[in-house]
Amino acid sequence: MDKKFFITCDSSCDLPSDFIKRNDIKLVPIKYIQGDTEYADDMEFDSKNAFYKRFRDGELSKTGSYNGDDVEEIWNSTGEPILHICLSSGLSKCYEHCIMKASEMKKEVKVIDSLFASLGTGVLVIKAVELRDKGLSLEEAFNELEKFKYTIHTNYTTHTLEYFYRGGRLSKSKYFLGKLLHINPILKMDPEGKLYIDKKCHGTKKSENEIIEDIKARAVNPENQTLYICHADCVEKAKELGERIKNEVGFKDIYITLMGPTIGSHCGPDLRAYFFLGKDRREK
Fold first, then answer.
1. Which of 52, 12, 47 is nearest to 269 (CA)?
2. E strand spans, the chain
3. Residue 175 has what pLDDT?
4. Are residues 125 and 201 both part of a single domain?
5. What's residue 1's pLDDT?
6. 20-69 pLDDT, tens digit each
7. Is there a domain that residue 1 lies in?
């Protein structure tokens, strides 16, 4: 295949490593620290499973953003123009660092701010592969993806607040009150790529029903699209709700992946995320 550009992305996309390899994509691993050791998120499933076991055993994790030096060698490893897709600028400095490095490169580099985390970024990577394989130029693909990213929608939810509390993202009083009231939050991404709490539901059943109704209201032509699901070591719960959404909303199929340490470090185990296509999120 005569490709007109080369795709690179970072490990926030939560796509399986075999997808990355099969589609000739170069990965920029985001580093994370668990215990006293620094690792690179290489998106291999075995390391992800070990990561969550250690997390449940009390070893919290933290990440940092990668810089221009981390991507320069990868971008220079091919003679083709580069399309790079990265973690939301609303959550990390990765995009800022990549834009600065791209401006210094002698070759053409386009950087996409996904405005998402996890498989929301992954959906953009999948779309980029589709556009590349259709023979679009770098400029054409970049323009298509810049519009497409605003049609991606999500709902994140969890049945436990424990890991938000342990990671310092929830105060002790809010944690105990939320636990007492069986709060299951539903989180979304705004058009600026920032995560926010959309609803606080009393119980898992209520939160799952809310998610289904929300997707019914926002999905466009679900019969022609895939429901993308990512989970933080809770595949059965993720799949169970995914099958309900597929059947009740009418998606043609589902695609499930495991959330890696890049995003898992910030949420801990038991988070579930559901991604689908709808109207432009910038429209009120």
1. 52
2. 6-10, 26-28, 31-34, 37-40, 61-63, 82-86, 109-113, 152-158, 183-189, 195-202, 226-231, 253-258, 271-277
3. 44
4. no
5. 53
6. 999 999 999 999 999 889 998 988 866 677 899 998 898 888 898 888 88
7. no
Is residue 144 located within the same domain as residue 254? no
Q: Give the mean model confidence (pLDDT) for residues 89-111.
A: 94
Question: Distance between CA atoms of 263 and 32, rounded to whole angstroms?
Answer: 10
Domain that holds residue 244: 151-277
- Report the CATH number that the domain containing residue 129 is assigned in CATH: 3.40.50.10170
Q: How far apart are alpha carbons 177 and 166 in whole angstroms?
A: 15
Any domain includes 172: yes
> Taking the CB of residue 171, how many other CB atoms lie within 10 A of it?
11
Which strand (E) or helix (H) includes residue 268? none
Q: CA–CA separation, 62 vs 127, rounded Å?
A: 29
Q: How far is 234 from 156, CA to CA, in rounded Å?
A: 13
CA dist., res. 37 & res. 197, Å (int): 32
When divided into structural domains, the chain yields a total of: 2
